[in-house]
Amino acid sequence: MGKIKIVTPEKGFYCNTYYDKNPWSPSVKYLAVTKLPYQDQITVLGDTAEVCIIYLEEQSIHTVYTTKSWGYQLC
Question: Which of 16, 27, 45, 57 has the fewest CB atoms in 10 Å of its CB?
């Protein structure tokens, strides 16, 4: 059985489902995630989420895009 490692920061709510897209880079050094502003309420028109890249070797995360086109169906 493989080891499990948490790669998202403790603060924030993250998901990595992109329909038919693999969130891992071909080198498996990077992971694409969506950072949600909350997870305990219904989304409201105009709320933004951040598209982020997690650099696994550096253990860092960088926002690359902000979007208003998101919802819990992503997760």
Answer: 45
pTM exceeds cut of 0.85: no
Instruction: For the sheet with 13-15, list strands across it.
Output: 13-15, 30-36, 49-55, 60-67
* Residues whose CB is less than 8 angstroms from the CB of residue 56 and which lie 6 or more positions away in sequence, other chains included: 7, 28, 29, 30, 31
The predicted-structure confidence for 15-29, as pLDDT tens digits, reads as follows: 887 677 889 999 999
Residues in the chain: 75
Cβ atoms within 10 A of the Cβ of 15, count?
17
Cβ(51)–Cβ(65) under 8 Å?
yes
